[in-house]
Design goal:
The structure is a single chain. The protein is of the alpha+beta class. It is built from five helices and three strands. The chain has a three-stranded antiparallel beta sheet, with no helix packed on it. It starts with 9 loop residues before the first helix and ends with a strand.
Length: 155
């Protein structure tokens, strides 16, 4: 692309291509063996534990006898294209294609027991090897509150 022995100067050729002149002279160096070893270890640990971020990877490498700074680990994670598996922001955004059900109790006067019931099913992440759901039923405050927790082995 850039010819050193052309009629145009290197400065003019770089300007025409939109390339910094220092980039023309830069010669990339090979990765050091220590860096390649560290990248391999990070990849192995992250493959075993995909929820680990830079802080936990730093602790895991420390257990293996490699003292590495967290910012260096973050840089190498970017280089490897990895990031911790975690809930991302805006996970509760509604899908606009789903039907929105009307709130039927807005204009209703609740004046006697057992007139309105409420139910909620909440999922909470159980221990590994367990599957769980929490089903709660609540009537009025004076009435009986029933809660049923179902836990089954297996997942």
């Amino acid at each position: 692309m850039i010819a050193p022995n052309a009629e145009l100067s290197i400065n003019r050729q770089c300007a025409l291509l939109g390339v910094a002149r220092s980039s023309f002279y830069h010669r990339p160096q090979a990765e050091p063996a220590e860096e390649l070893d560290l990248l391999a270890r990070l990849d192995r640990i992250f493959t075993d534990h995909p929820v680990y971020g830079s802080r936990r990877l730093q602790v895991a490498l420390g257990r293996e006898g490699m003292g590495v700074g967290r910012r260096r680990i973050r840089r190498l994670m970017k280089k490897l294209g990895i990031c911790a598996v975690r809930p991302k922001p805006h996970t509760s955004k509604p899908n606009h294609q789903h039907k929105i059900y009307p709130y039927l109790l807005r204009a209703k006067v609740i004046d006697r027991p057992n007139q309105v019931w409420s139910t909620d099913i909440t999922y909470s992440a159980p221990r590994p090897g367990w599957s769980g759901a929490y089903i709660g039923t609540q009537r009025r405050k004076e009435e009986l509150n029933e809660c049923l927790a179902l836990c089954c082995e297996g997942a």
